[in-house]
Amino acid sequence: MRCKACMKCREYVLIHPEDPANQEVMKIFEGKHRGHTVVTLDFNEVKGTFKNFQEEKAEESEESSDSEEY
Ligand SMILES: [Zn+2]
Q: For the whole model, what pTM was predicted?
């Protein structure tokens, strides 16, 4: 799986070429990181070290039950 990643902010967004909603997310991502170093990488290269751009704006946080590390 491919993704776009900002080397400066260490954020990535997954690329789903068939998904129109993803095109919008991509535009927002590129707008936010305009002037930064945005590269296309394999998901395996960003996993763990970069944070998901889409998770940041997600309102619902169902999976954050054991997040006492914060
Ligand atoms: Zn950036």
A: 0.75
Q: What is the pLDDT of residue 54?
A: 86
Instruction: Measure 5 CA to ligand 1 centroid, in angstroms.
Output: 8
Residue type for 36, please? Answer: H
User: Ligand 1 centroid to 65 CA: how many Å?
Assistant: 29
Cα 62 to ligand 1 centroid, rounded to whole Å: 27
DSSP 3-state assignment of 45?
helix
Task: Please check whether residue 3 is in contact with residue 43, taking contact to mean a CB–CB distance below 8 angstroms.
Answer: yes
Kindly state the tokens that stand for 27. 């535009």
Residue ranges in the chain whose pLDDT is less than 70: 56-70
What's the rounded Cα separation, in Å, for the pair 25 and 27? 5
- Kindly state the tokens that stand for 24: 């919008």
